[in-house]
Specification:
Largest sheet: 3 strands, parallel
Radius of gyration: 16 Å
Number of helices: 6
Number of strands: 3
Structural class: mainly alpha
Shape: globular
Distance between the termini: 30 Å
Length: about 150
């Protein structure tokens, strides 16, 4: 690991971490575990910040595999078809810009947190102030349970 005060590690999550897609339980559970691991590593490592992003729908082969997989679930197949038909994909530029924002931000703002490239207002001063003031925000928590 790099021995600099501003080192960053960025993981990628997504694919059902905020919902319960049928027949994707192993994939989704592993991503949720990665979100918590990111938070734990950040808490345990003073000289490095760990963050995780959900990139949104990125045009990758996993979606082609969903369309042809037996037992994938009609909901997953239908949502995938909609993204193909509308051409709705997250751009690699947006993902890179979010990563760059995380790298440039302080640990108090991004450390141990889960960001959505598509749905969060990353890079906005209001969000940065909120994150700095609430260490539980954008982390794997149940509201009101902080023990």
């Amino acid at each position: 690991m790099c021995k600099r005060d501003d080192s960053s590690v960025i993981f990628f999550a997504g694919g059902g971490t905020n919902s319960a897609p049928v027949n994707f339980s192993a994939y989704t559970a592993s991503k949720i575990a990665l979100i918590k691991l990111c938070e734990l590593l950040d808490a345990e490592t003073e000289d490095c910040k760990f963050s995780i992003i959900g990139p949104g729908w990125v045009k990758t082969k996993i979606h082609q595999e969903t369309l042809t997989a037996e037992g994938a679930g009609e909901d997953a197949v239908q949502r995938t078809r909609e993204h193909y038909s509308k051409g709705e994909w997250t751009s690699m530029l947006s993902i890179a810009e979010c990563c760059e924002w995380i790298i440039q931000s302080s640990k108090s703002v991004v450390g141990g947190r889960n960001f959505s490239v598509v749905h969060d207002e990353w890079g906005e001063e209001n969000l940065e102030n909120t994150l700095s003031g609430n260490q539980d925000f954008y982390k794997l928590r149940r509201y009101g349970n902080n023990v």
